[in-house]
Amino acid sequence: MFAGAGIRGGTIHGASDAHAAYVKDKPVNTSDICATIYECLGIDPDMLVYDNNRPVAVAHGGKPIREILA
Q1: How far is CA 14 from CA 10, 25, 27, 43, 52, in A?
Q2: CA separation for the pair 8, 11 (Å, rounded)
Q3: Binned average pLDDT, 10 residues per bin, the chain of 70 residues
């Protein structure tokens, strides 16, 4: 899913069951994917943005997937 721009090539993260139906190891969510992209762009994933004067973390609480970063 990721390539270049600070991602370690050929890296496999996590595992699925024998039928590839369910996550078996190291699950991630869309917020983690967003946080990883922001990290590669040099943007702090915990940076606050304001939506109608309400602070919201730009990656919605996701954490970068450090195991795949170069």
Answers
A1: 13, 5, 7, 25, 37
A2: 6
A3: 78 90 93 92 94 92 90
